[in-house]
Prior knowledge:
A: 2 domains, 71% helix, B: four-stranded antiparallel beta sheet, binds adenosine-5'-diphosphate
Amino acid sequence: MFKDITLGQYYPGDSVLHRLDPRTKLIGTLAFIISVFIFHTFPGYAVATVFLAAVIWLSRIPPRLIFKGLKAIMLLLIITVMFNIFLTPGEIVWSWRFLKVSREGLSLSGRMAIRLTYLVTGSSIMTLTTTPNQLTNAMESLLRPLNRINVPVHEIAMMMSIALRFIPILMEETDKIMKAQTARGADFESGGIIKKVRNMIPLLVPLFISAFRRANDLAMAMEARCYHGGGGRTQMKPLRYAMIDYAAFVILTVYLAIGAVFRIVGI
Amino acid sequence: MPIECKDVSFTYAPATAYEIHALKNINLRIEDHEFIGIIGHTGSGKSTLIQHFNALIQPTSGTILYNGEDIWGQNYNRRTLRSEVGLAFQYPEHQLFENDVLSDVCFGPMNQGLTREEAEPEARKALLQVGFKEKNFLKSPFELSGGQKKRAAIAGVLAMNPKILILDEPTAGLDPRGRDNILDQIAELQSVRGITIILVSHSMEDIAKYTRRLIVMNQGEVVYDDAPHEVFSHYEELEKMGLAAPQVTYLMNGLKKRGLPVDLKADTVAEASKSILKALREVDSPLLKEGGSHV
Ligand SMILES: Nc1ncnc2c1ncn2[C@@H]1O[C@H](COP(=O)(O)OP(=O)(O)O)[C@@H](O)[C@H]1O
Ligand SMILES: [Mg+2]
């Protein structure tokens, strides 16, 4: 039942993309997302498509996996496109009863569809090539300046990485508890809403108890190793930019520059 | 009610990077009133296999028949199947949830449609049969010791009066005395209730003592399916799979190699001592003449 969650599912590998510094990937993804909003013409989207295709090719991840993330937003995508097609005023090209389709609506919905698709695909590639821990590390490192205005950056990052670490564990646990209760005749599917909620009790009680126990054990283990928050803490594997990161930044800059030029020139 | 597996294969997370072929082409037939042991290294697929027996997992390919009927057939009632084939999981923490032990054990029978009044006698009977003390019936399941939790969890399944009881590592993490205790009670259950027992274990000694048929799993395949002493005679192959025969088997094989005509089928301490004495008598050993009386 938990099979189709691609966002946040790391695909182990050793491609160029896997080896990039997570900060580079985070910045790169942001830049790419910005770029699909800068581009608004056909040649622009062609450039973005070439860039995305190259990145997919470099990642060596089966495209099937990358596009699985799109399935989750399919409904959102369809609704957005529908709204834009039928509700954008402008030069009418087709109408039937109260439904009217305008030229502007068609082009706007086309753009929205491309943007959404590229946005999700781009971030899927990042999460597929970066472990959740690397990602939080990157965030901590990029947000460190906020420490000066008393934002507890390290603590937030630590909480995020613990939460991310716990998600698969708790999902596995949920699966096991459901099986154990199903074996005793529990029914998690049929019945009305009230019955369904009541039927969840045999699942939720063991799950919460286990989550609290794990949290307690983890806190104890951290305490036993003298964890005391971010102050003066060093890292075992500090993030360092390497040659490929500088190369990646050059490519990104060129890519964004093209976007800016296209926008200014208006093609 | 026999269970039959025909060419059963199962894959976790198919078509992803984390694909695991947990079962490969399993063919098995489990008859009534058997006491079967399943043994195998961690990750060999034991838990995956037994979850197929009560339809918690649907095989990726192959069929499972219960009493001759395909349990994944269109109109098959799998809830009824689950009350006939009881499965007690390895971790009691995954199922205990009520305020007191007795209510928790009533959960299963009440899901079968009994009222609380009808369920309670079943629950009491099951708890007593697994050796759970009556004074602890109204305790919270969360303040019990490991062994008591395990008993409560097994009783939770037993109270549903299954015809086949499957136990996934019921003795893991228990001290030796608690272990023998639970297994003795289960063996007694088998003779009192006349049910089929499938015991997943990693202790060869336990298997040798209690079961009459042993299935050995390795990397998702059934490698041996025979009487325990027959399986143990392949102790060298077992070692290659990260398993070992009972200590007694090594002793008997060692004695045989040194020329004592002992019976290699002996796989418990009691059987072994009988066989050794007999062999010593046969060879007219001086050991018997000197201090034999206290052997
Ligand atoms: N819920 C699951 N999801 C993915 N893989 C699993 C799951 N449960 C077990 N496995 C894998 O399947 C294989 C067999 O596991 P299991 O049946 O639990 O073995 P055993 O009970 O003999 O230790 C192992 O490689 C294990 O990692
Ligand atoms: Mg197991």
